[in-house]
Amino acid sequence: MGFGRVVESAAASRDEPLFHAEWEPRVLGMIVALGAAGKWNLDQSRFARESLPPVDYLRFPYYRIWLEAAEKLMLERNMITAEELSAGSMISQPQPIRKRLAREDVAAALEAGGPVDRPADHDPGFEVGDAVRTINIHPEGHTRLPRYARGHVGNITAILGFHVFPDSNALGALGKGEDPQWLYQVRFSAQELWGKDRHPRDTVTLDLWEPYLERP
Amino acid sequence: MSGTHEDDHDHSHLSEMDARVRALESLLVEKGYLDSAAVDEIIETYETRIGPRNGAHVVAKAWCEPDFADWLKQDATAAIHSLGYVSRQGEHMVAVFNDAKTHHLVVCTLCSCYPWSVLGLPPTWYKSPPYRSRAVIDPRGVLAEFGLEPSDDVAVEVHDSTAETRYLVIPQRPDGTDDWSEEQLMACVSRDAMIGTALAQKP
Q1: pLDDT tens, A138-160?
Q2: For residue A152, which of B160, B84, B203 has the smallest C-alpha distance?
Q3: Which 8-state DSSP code applies to residue A117?
Q4: What pLDDT does A1 receive?
Q5: Which of B31, B109, B127 has its CB closest to that of A146?
Q6: B112: annotated active-site residue
Q7: CA of A118, closest CA in chain B: separation in Å?
Q8: pTM recorded for the entire structure
């Protein structure tokens, strides 16, 4: 809670530019374009960002986080080397990639996006209205169950589909691949999550996969 | 920004970050991983074509056409796609409707998930540690910084975008706009109103 204000005013938010330096849009465009190379998936890229040194993660501007994580991913995959980064030019042979995104393919690639719903091979284990308790886990790897929502009781408010499970997908070849699971919207009261001094009407919903949930 | 990275006759004005990013881009181009023209095109798309006007169109249409509003409630992805707003970070959409008893607010505490297809790129504060931590713990305190004070009988419902589902807030239609056209109504709908940190209001 010690992070301070979000904005100085509503007007300050309205007038905020999209980018604050010349390099920021270049990083945005580069990282989006590199997705076509097929060298990492969405969850691997999220994990690369969130596993940066915590102090850097908190103080770096957003696109700097993207940049640091992308360099890390490319170094890990031998797409580039530290020597090449220092020199700014090619020293070792390139790694094979799925595709280099060309200008004429940008519109189609953005339109295609990356849907994560998959054909379901079993029925959902919970129904709308069911009470559920989130599990308490602290994995070394990637998860999308936030720490503040572990071990709490809420109610299923929607069944959102059968979606790729990030905890597995982030492991790449080391995991069970996409391992899709049922995804639910789960509503928690603010008092359940944060204590009795919260407003009694306020709630928080999270979108949670079935492996995160158990019957209370 | 288009083309400025190729203007390399004078590095003295470049910050360290500008120089670093320029060097990386040139390395990735040389290695055959990247086409700078594609980077230009992506930037131009988000600077000129994909932004909050898309979302404002969705909202205004929902205000004007009850059938469209119902479709948004049932299947926001299909309803939004029907207007041509089909692109990344909008593959799985949910629309949440403000009313007299509920005010919705969207956040991504784990990273910065945001409905790009209808709102474009997120503002800096949306991606910042203060918003990402405080929106779930103290939503009323955050709303107050934006000048909003929901009354005690209104429930604030925060949506933490923990999956690939992207949330779009449909704000309440401003009073006194009954005879307004869809185009006029769009001008009432700001980006922040569709995140939940503002109300729709007459321009």
Answers
A1: 999 999 999 999 999 999 999 99
A2: B160
A3: B
A4: 58
A5: B109
A6: yes
A7: 12
A8: 0.95
